[in-house]
Design a protein that fits this description.
The protein is of the alpha/beta class. The chain is built from 10 helices and 10 strands. Helix 2 packs across helix 3 and helix 7 crosses helix 8. The radius of gyration is 18 Å and the shape is globular. The mean pLDDT is 98. Bound molecules: NADP nicotinamide-adenine-dinucleotide phosphate.
Length: 277
């Protein structure tokens, strides 16, 4: 398993598992838990969730999937912006810990920027760290300008990651945010790495993948895995698709393959607002 170093020095798998919408359909629950567990078996031990997902249902499902396996996994969860204050964050964190059935969240993220001043959010993260409720913290959906502001905030440079929308069809961050993060060795966590499945419908990607004996999902994920400092967190609640996605780890794209993908999915030619889903 390729690993990515966080600024704190710890490493995490470059391919993890997303969990948005897992736990929403009771009929799928057993298969979703089996898929998460299969992923852990295959080394996809970074699990990304959030208090928002299904109003806590995803965290509860993750809790069930990791029961008895706490030491094998690296748990990422997120706090709503309106709960990212000194007063509300401890309650949110406690509720997440309870649903997850764990003592400490490995990496706790601000889900997106809201009205709570970022300096207060940083202080709230620091208090949770001191209390042993979280080990590390980071952010999500912050553009380069917001990251710079965070960096100028006392304690703000302790952020371990910025989790943003990034896939072959959404390359805008390569203009500014990507280089900004790389320079500071902050990990980039790529969410919706297959654009919620829509990328797989693109004929050009399907042809590219077929010519190289891989699936479109594997091509899209292998492209992310080829980059330094990038962690991809595809979501699936299905064991066979999980195994297909994990197969991306065995696919190496050559420099010629990467150039071909640049022609099919061109990098940005200028700045653009940060895209979000
Ligand atoms: P995604 O991972 O790009 O795509 C997930 C969708 O693709 C699901 O519908 C899944 O269906 C399907 N899928 C997965 N593998 C497949 C395959 N090999 N072949 C065909 N279909 C496949 O989208 P995402 O869930 O939006 O993003 C991933 C994770 O990032 C989320 O789960 C969440 O943890 C995180 N996220 C964070 C933010 C944020 O604001 N920070 C925003 C969005 C997402 P099945 O489950 O049926 O396989």
């Amino acid at each position: 398993m390729k690993r990515v170093a966080l600024p704190c020095g710890e490493t995490v798998p470059a391919l993890g598992q997303g969990t948005w919408q897992l736990g929403d359909d009771r009929g799928q629950r057993a298969e979703e838990i089996a898929a998460l567990r299969r992923g852990i078996d295959l080394g996809l031990t970074l699990l990304d969730t959030a208090e928002m997902y299904g109003d806590g249902r995803s965290e509860s499902l993750v809790g069930e999937a990791i029961a008895g396996r706490r030491d094998e996994v690296f748990i990422v969860s997120k706090v709503y912006p309106h709960n990212a204050s000194r007063r509300a964050m401890p309650r949110s964190c406690e509720a997440s810990l309870k649903r997850l059935g764990i003592e400490t969240i490995d990496l706790y993220l601000l889900h997106w920027e809201g009205s709570v001043p970022i300096a207060e959010t940083v202080q709230a993260f620091e208090a949770l760290q001191r209390a042993g409720k979280i080990r590390h913290w980071g952010v999500s959906n912050l553009d380069a300008e917001a990251m710079q502001t965070l960096w100028e905030t006392p304690g703000g440079a302790a952020a371990q990651t910025d989790q943003v929308l990034y896939n072959l069809g959404r390359r805008g961050i390569e203009w500014d945010l990507g280089p900004w993060l790389r320079e500071r060795r902050v990990a980039l966590m790529a969410y919706s790495p297959i654009e919620q499945g829509r990328l797989l419908q693109q004929r050009t990607l399907a042809e590219f993948a077929r010519e190289r004996a891989m699936t479109p999902a594997q091509a899209a994920l292998a492209w992310l895995l080829a980059q330094d400092g990038v962690i991809a967190i595809p979501k699936t609640g299905n064991r066979s698709r999980l195994e297909e996605n994990a197969g991306a780890l065995a696919q190496t794209l050559s420099p010629a393959d990467l150039e071909a993908l640049d022609r099919l999915f061109p990098p940005p030619k200028g700045p653009s607002p940060l895209a979000m889903i």
